[in-house]
Amino acid sequence: MAPIERITLFKIPDEAGRDRVLEQYKVMAKTATKNGKPYILSAAAGHSFPDPRNKGYTLSVKTTFGSLEDMQYYDKECEAHKALKAVAKPVMEEVLTSYFENVL
C-alpha cells in the first residue's frame, strides 16, 4: 500500500493563535507514537501565503502516514494529536482535511 498523504487547512485569524498551533505541531511531530514507536512518516506545516485561492485558510499542514490504519489511529487514539486539537480548537474558525493514497 502506498503512503497516505493528509492535507489539513486551518482558518485561524490571529497570528499568535497560528503560532501556538505551529508550536504544538512541532511537539506532536516529536511525541506521536503508536505501540511505543513513531508512526508519522513526515509532517510539514506553515503559515499559508496570502492568496485568493486559499479561501481564507491561514495555516497549512501536510502529514504522511504509512497506512490508512495509521491515519485512523492518529484521528481516534493518538494522545499527541489530542493535545494538538486541544490547542487548535479554541483559536480556529474552521478546519478542512483531505487525504489520499499517493500514486506517484
From TrEMBL:
<protein>
    <recommendedName>
        <fullName>Stress-response A/B barrel domain-containing protein</fullName>
    </recommendedName>
</protein>
<dbReference type="Pfam" id="PF07876">
    <property type="entry name" value="Dabb"/>
</dbReference>
<dbReference type="InterPro" id="IPR013097">
    <property type="entry name" value="Dabb"/>
</dbReference>
<feature type="domain" description="Stress-response A/B barrel">
    <location>
        <begin position="4"/>
        <end position="100"/>
    </location>
</feature>
<dbReference type="InterPro" id="IPR011008">
    <property type="entry name" value="Dimeric_a/b-barrel"/>
</dbReference>
